[in-house]
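Example complex used in Figure S2.
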Amino acid sequence: MKSYQPLFWQKLSGRTKFLIFTLGLYAIISLFNTAVIVNSLSYFSFMLTKVIPVLGLVFIILFLTNLFLKPERIKKHMGKDSGLKGWFYDLIGGIIISGPPYVLYPMLGELQDNGARNGLIAAILYNRNVKIHFLPAMIYYFGMRYTVVLSIYILLFSLLNGKLLEIIVGE
Amino acid sequence: MQTKNTKEALHQTVNLFKTMLPMLFGMLLLVSLMQQLFQQHYQSWFTGNYILDPLIGTLAGAISFGIPITSYIAGGELVKGGVSLLAVTAFIMTWTTVGLIMIPWEASFLGKRFAIARNILNFFFALLIAMATVYTLGLLS
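Predicted assembly (312 residues):
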């Protein structure tokens, strides 16, 4: 089937098209509600100030991963044969790992490309909700008992989550 | 040899960043817009229905995004406003574990099947964890 999209549009990557789509959405909404757009841009710049330092850290980690971490090593600790040890590292790693999920995806994608199990990656993403530095805030709003119970369930369900995901998408 | 490896690793990392930045900016712009459109309206979404509210909480969390602490503050306010702990827990859980807006971003690194399956699983897990947490708290008290 012949495509009638302009040539420049065809040359753009899906990610760039997504950015253009979002900017288009902003342009359309600004015609009807400028205040929402101004507030959104202000929130966007606030998020950028938080994200840029983390991105710098992600760059360094990715560079070091590419430089030193060999696929064999990743497979050994996070691959099919990592066994219980893999899940244990995963629980600890998920809690320790910091940063918003969208900056973790590129790093976890690299691990996946180098042989890490899908289940372990899913469990890391789930476990990162037990954040030591956020626990005082949760205790303040919901109490100690609630925080402990919820955190335990998150850790337990992260394992189930990883296992189920592997059944659905494979290891 | 080490210099070559260093150059190669740097090249790989720079390339990855070049491909990820446009989408990251697009996604952050979209998230900022959603934040403005939804943030003030959470309280009005809940109905007071003990069965419907957890589902609404799960959906509200799934389309929202931000650091976890924001969900605690919003959740704390919802509880004060009379929304059930079950609904608020589901809301907090999907806030951090489900990212509908971020599925394209997640899929571009971890695969489409992975991203979709993970988000669907987390959606239902949020409900299960909310039920288990509230039930356990009931037993403990």
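Chain B touches chain A through 63 residues (CB under 8 Å). Residues 29-140 of chain B form one domain.
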